[in-house]
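Worked Example 4.2. Consider the chain below.
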Amino acid sequence: MTGPVDAQIRQWRGYLEGRRRMRADEVDELESHLRDQISDLEARGLDGDESFLVAVKRMGAADAVAHEFAREHSERLWKQLVLGSAEDESARRGELPVVLALGGAAGLSLLAVLHLLGESAPRFVGFAVAPFLVGYFAWKRAMPRRAVAVVLGGFAVMAGLLAAYPFESGGSTEVLAVVAAPVVLWFGVGVAYTGGAWRSAPRRMDFVRFTGEFVIYFLLIALGGGAITGLTIAALGAVGLDAESPVTEWALPLCVGGAVLVAAWLVQAKQEVIENIAPVLTRIFTPITLVMLVVVLGAFASRPGLIGADRDLLVLMTVVLVLVVGLLLYAVSARDPRRRPDVFDRLQVALVVAAIAVDLVVLVAMVTRTAEFGTSPNKAAVLGLNLVLLVILAGAARMGLGFVRGSRDFAAIERWQTSTLPAYAAWAAVVALAFPPLFGFS
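Applying the procedure from the previous section yields the following C-alpha cells:
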C-alpha cells in the first residue's frame, strides 16, 4: 500500500484508540480486516484513496467506533467517490469516449437489425448489442485476444445457426430461441467481465453483483428516457409535427443500444459506492416473496386440480421461481461473508424451502400434463428449466441449512451459487439451438 494510504490507516487507528478503551489486539485485528478490504478493492481497480474510504465504510457496518469514524468523514467520502480526484477524473474522461463510441455503434447495430431483418429481427436483437458490451469489458480488463475471439466466435456461430434455421414464422421454437439466446449472450458478457477468468468464484460473484446493479441502472435510464421521449413527442405534436414514428422507430433503438453501454459504465464507475442498494433490496423483497410463495402453496392445497389444468399458471409459476432464484443469488452477492448467521439468513432458507415445494408441485403437474397430452417445445423447455431450478434450489437449501446451523461457512454458499451459473446458459443454449431441429422448427 502507498504512503498516503498508510497515513490514512494510522489516522483511522488513532481515532479508534482515542474514542474508547480497546485492547491493542482488538485494534490490530480491525486494522488487519481493513487492510484486507483495501487490498481486495485495489485488486478490483480502485485507487488507494477510494479503496480506503470504501473499506472504512464497510468496517463501520461491523464496528460502532468505525461507523462513527465513517459518519464524521462522510462529506469527504462522498466527494471522493462522486467527484473524484484529478487523476480519477482524467481516467474517466479517457474512458467515457470509448463508452460513447461503443454505445453509438451498438445503437446503430440495433437500428440496422430492426430495420433490415424484418420478421426475423427479434432473434438477433441481443446479437446487435452484446458484442459491443464484450468489447468494452475486454478493453477495460485487458482480456487476452484469444479469449475475446472465443467469445465473439461463439456469438457468430450461434447467430449463424439461428439465421440458417428454417423457423416456422411465429412458431414455438422461434419464440423459445428469442427468449433463450440473450441468456447465452449474457453468459458471454460475463466471461468478458471477468477478463476471461470465469473459473474464479469471486469474479463470478462480482459479475452477479454487476448484473443486479446493471438492471437497476438500465431501468432507471429507461424510465427517464421514456419520460423524455414522451414529452418530446407531445411537445412536437403541440406544434403540429407528428414525431411518434421517427422517434420510436429511429431514435429509440439508438438510445437503447447506447443506454446498455452507459449503464454498464455507470455500474463500473460506482460499483463500490457506499450504501450499495443490493442489501436494502434483498432485505425488502425476501420476506415479501416468502409470504407470496406460502400463499401460493396454500391456494394450490385448497384447489389441488387448479395448477394441473392451467398451462399459463404453470408458466407463470416457473417465471416466479426464476425470480426467486435470482433474488437468492443477489442476496448472496450482497451479504458480508464475515457476518454471523442471523434472522435474515433463516428467512432465506425458508424462502428456498418454499420455492422447492412450489417447484415440485409444478413439476408433478407438468409431467402429468405431458403424459396426458404429449410433449411440445414449450413444455419441454419449461420442464427442463424447472429441473435445473430444482437442483440449484436443493443445493442452496443444503448449503443454507448448514450455514445457519454453523456446520458450513458462507463461502460454501457463494461457491455453490456461482458454480451453477453455467447451467442456466447451458440449458438456454439447448433450447435456442437444439430444440428447433428436434421439434421440426415448428
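Confidence is low (pLDDT under 50) at residues 74-90. The CA atoms of residues 153 and 262 lie 24 Å apart. Compare this with Example 4.1 before moving on.
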